[in-house]
Specification:
The complex is a heterotetramer. Chain A is built from 8 helices and 15 strands. By secondary structure, chain A is α+β, with helices and mostly antiparallel strands. A 5-stranded mixed sheet of chain A has the order 3-2-1-5-8. Chain B has a single domain, classed as Cytochrome c oxidase, subunit III, four-helix bundle (Four Helix Bundle (Hemerythrin (Met), subunit A), Up-down Bundle), CATH 1.20.120.80. Chain B is about 65% helix and about 5% strand. Chain B is built from 6 helices and 4 strands; from the N terminus they run E-E-H-H-H-H-E-E-H-H. Chain B is elongated and about 70 Å long. Classes of the chains: A alpha+beta, B mainly alpha, C mainly alpha, D mainly alpha. Chains in contact: A-B, A-C, A-D, B-C, B-D, C-D.
Amino acid sequence: MIHYLIQDPPQDPPKWDGVPAPDIDQFGQFPKLASTFHDVDGLFYFTYAVCIFFFVLITGVLLYSVVAHRRKTWDQKPLSNVTHNTPLEVVWTLIPLVLVMIMFAWGFKGSLDMTVVPHEAHLNTYKATAKQWSWQFTYPDGTTSYDEVWVEAGKPVQFILESKDVLHAFYVPAMRVKRDVVPGRYQSAWFEPHFTKEFAEGEPREQTFHLFCAEYCGLDHSRMYAKVHVVDAETMAKTPWNLVPKPEDPIEDKIAYGKQFANAQCLSCHSTNGAPGVGPTWKGLFTKDADGNYVGRQRDVLEGGQKKTITVDDAYILESIKEPMKKLAAEFPNGGMSNFDSLKDDEARLACILAYIKSLADN
Amino acid sequence: MSHDDHHAVVVPAPGPEFVPHEVAHHFSTPVQEFQSGKLGFWLFLATEILLFGGLFAAYFYFHEVYPETFRVGGQQLDWRLGALNTSVLLLSSWTMAMGVRSAQTSQKSKTLMFLGLTVLGAAIFMVIKFFEYKAKNEHGLIVFSELFRPFIENPDGTGSLAWFQDYHGVMAGVPHGHMFFAIYLTMTAIHGLHVVIGAGLIIWIMFGTAKGRFHAGYFMPVDLVGLYWHLVDLIWIFLFPLLYLVP
Amino acid sequence: MTTNTPAVATATPETQAPRETYLNCSSGFMSWAGTLDHKRIGIMYLVGVGIAFLAGGLFALLVRLHLWEPEGLLFSNLDYNQVFTLHGAFMVFLFVIPAIPGSIGNMVLPLMVGAKDVALPRLNLLSFYLWLTGAILATLAIVLGGFDTGWTFYAPYSLYTDKAVVTIGLAVFVLGFSSIFTGLNFIVTVHKLRAPGMTWFRMPLMVWALYSTSILQVLATPVLGITVLLVAFERLYHIGIFDPRLGGDPVLFEHFFWFYSHPAVYIMVLPAFGIISELVSVHSRKPLFGYKLIAFSSLAIAIISFLVWGHHMFTSGQSTYAMFAFSFLTFFVAIPTAIKEFSWVATVWKGSVALNSPMLYALAFLIIFAIGGLTGVILGTLNVNLHLHDTYFVVAHFHYVMMGSISLAFFAGLHHWWPKMFGKMYSETLAKIACLIIFVGFNMTFIPQFIMGSRGMPRRYATYVPEFEPFHQASTIGAIILGCGVALMVFYLLQSLLSGKKAKENQWGGVTLDWHTPTPPPHLNFDHEPKVVHEVYDYSTLDYESMQRDAT
Amino acid sequence: MSDTATATDAHDAHGHGELEMGHIHVSSAAMFFKVLVALLFLTFITVAVSRFDFGSMNMLIAMAIACVKASLVIAFFMHVKWDTAINKIVFLGSFLFLALLFVFTLADLLTRRLDHEMHTIKSPVDKEWVQPKPQADGNH
């Protein structure tokens, strides 16, 4: 990690930390299928077999002729001067033609399954909102989760995909699902999740899969990652994504949740160690005085183009999240922080973020 | 030894006011040279067609997406000026064709006259274009002084363009009103650039004609510039109804 | 065909002045910088694309080294994004597209059709200088802050990023016109400057391939030109047709971009097919199997390639109906390509196969292209593509085609015509070793990428999930081996210029017109105007006596 | 070799490098003038027609007239009528490839509407997020 000698290392472990590598199927090529799109695997291995056959044929004939008919004396003439053989040429045109038409028809059928959303999936529609460089999921009941999504095994689910800025792609390898997320319109993807393994007695019936962004979207494209939790109906009923610490919960829980949330949503632009980022650093926003009270620093901001100095406090932080363009930090006159609409009324999560920011204060 | 068997092929001049033409070393006949030059130029014109084709494709695409924008936008253009410009360009195309014909028949002064008229046509076209742009500028549809200002984005996802100030004027209520004018500006500006380049080429050809380089035995440059000028006309033939009449 | 056995082929006395060639007929900087000779322009292109290739290769090595660890070894994400973009842009626009037509094509096409020069020599020089301008602009773009859009410039990211996209867009525009002018020149040359007796079906397949390429260059490149111009306008004055904030459609950008860039794949690969067709015939000393079918398949590929661009956009939100149409049409490109591969193998069959270095490179091409082409079929199937699109599987596939096939064909052609170009011979032993190293290194680099890709590793990732680490490390080791092979090749080729043996008049025993002119050719290519009387690839006309005299 | 071979022969027969004017068609000035009149008349027609609203036919009519005008320019002013076959193929062929660009791009746009029914996604202009309602008469 040579570059960390000259720059600060990332602040937290990558988002995929702790997600196990997916099981690989028996041919070693694909992660084990966790959805119902069997045609992808079937057609892939059929095409693969055809390709291996032709590769062996071509390479075999080629290498045989190279060895058997190699030039031994400098003036050796070829064994044959044949320049064409119509039956042979017709055969090697028609056979590939038939094969590729089979592949097309199979691929057509398979992709029809993937694009026509079944009615059950319509009834279980999530929204996935992509923005540089994180995912946000809205459940049918209107609640949200960030960089993690829970789906129920055996129940078809549709994702309506929306981008806040540039192109992204919603890619869950284990489900064989990929769809670009195009700004300015909605796309959709659906799948029916399944477990890829048998569970032991008493083991929680839950598996986690990768969700990648597969369309290049800028700086932290590679860190635009989310976890797809496939769980059983029982766990699903507990709505695990709603387990946000409540105001009366201990501050440690709130800080821990805030840290996890910030890591997913905020820290690709804001640093916590003073390093310059896309937005202002969070380091030193508050200091802790001798009595243990948090004291906000003085900061120059631009409000409506007017420069003024304010003291950082809870209200300022919350306002910056809800209306990022209202008071711009003077060092970042162009603003550009993306909107966190879903957070506007989410007091529980906002409290956690605030708690985390305050916990960064120097003593 | 390689140069020994190479003789330059020379096309004699038809009269004392003309100069003979020496065929380039790698061609064996003037016909071969002429046909090569011409095929090459036709290929170049094909690339021009496809270059403009991209713009036309964008036009048709957004005409389909925002029909209302294009309808209202098209009404803001003055079809009289457009029709006048079309006529000017058609006339200049005719003078160009006549200029080429004069060169083919070794009529030096007539060639000069027709080429000069063509340049005049180009100039008139650009002047009319200037007044059209000026009107758009005054109405806030294309504010040229604000053209290169950044797009101002509001936090609620909306935003406004500096060069398009008619959000609440004639284009109020149609989706993305700037779209028509952006496409209008881009297409006519690139076309206008071609007009200017074409006029420059014609002036260059006029110098050659004055020196007597072009005559019945060698008129390829006049012919090729003529083709270029007709292409400029050809594109305008489609631009005129699409921008001024149809929407 | 006229066989001009040079009178001075045997022992030239030391005192006699060397024969006049295009290399020594004039000297001085301006004799090169202002030359209209297609051979000198070809050499200048060769130097240019060679440097671009080495630069692009260096970026590739940096990318591979960075990916040694899941969290990245060398760069921040921003720097990584710039380096992979530079790798892509340099390789595609400055190397792969102009490499074969610009250098080898310029050198041999007029020789092969028996012309004194290309039809429009001034345009040819202009085309080189446009290439140079493009290269300078691309370098300038690095200085002006680089660009991190990927070589595809996908909107809207390319509209929002604060990097030097306009400069690189301008570079691409200029390079596009360089490519257009080369293609235009070749079409005119083939139509109007063929030697007497050189009928269409007596043209070597290299000429057919370059001709088909030229059609694509002329017809497809302008659309790229207007696309990058529109991106530049979009950034400068926000026309809004690609920008979703202004009501534009990013998918329209993809349509425009791939209207060019899919045919561009064939602009890159068809000349490679041409080289391989020549080489398997000459080095097997056997007429090419299915000559007409290969010639027509080049044209068929050229035409069909305009109908399939949507297969780059299966996941991108074009309509399902368009997806089906594009997938269906895509498979029809597979057929002419398969025909070519089969025909080459049938040409080698029962030939008199010389295992010299150009042929080794060509054989490596045949094997690698088989993999590259066949994995293309896998990617053409709709539903499999939905899983594999934008993963390392695609990366590996197109590197098998672009790096493995096209670059190897370029190397093969370079080794084949090197003695013709310079009259000097490189070390055959080192050439064979380098070929082997490149072959091994290449496969070691990209086979792991196939596996990673089908397991779900997305492309353009600066950091990655740790389970892919072993594959990335194997790939990086492969890339280092590949780099060593290329370095060795560059070394012995340059060495041959300084201290290489004198090449034979007809080094490999070719019978096309390019081997019927003295080595290296004189300024006007032929001592006597060639007149073609034999069919192409008629090895019964091979002049064994003069070859033997030459050999001693 | 077809075209240049004959040219070379002709050149040899005459012994001079003089351009054979027989290859070049010089059109009459009267013809050019007639074409000009026709073009101006068609310009008048297209403007006149545009004063009436034919609904979706407006575009078709205007494009048809523009195509006729373009054909006149191409055939007569640009001499394509008398040009060699290859030059005709090159220039007219470029329109064919242009058509490919138009057809596929627009076909995608137009069939995307059918798609939206297939996916039941709301129109791209409307960015309001509305949860699809469960259908009372669901087909399961």
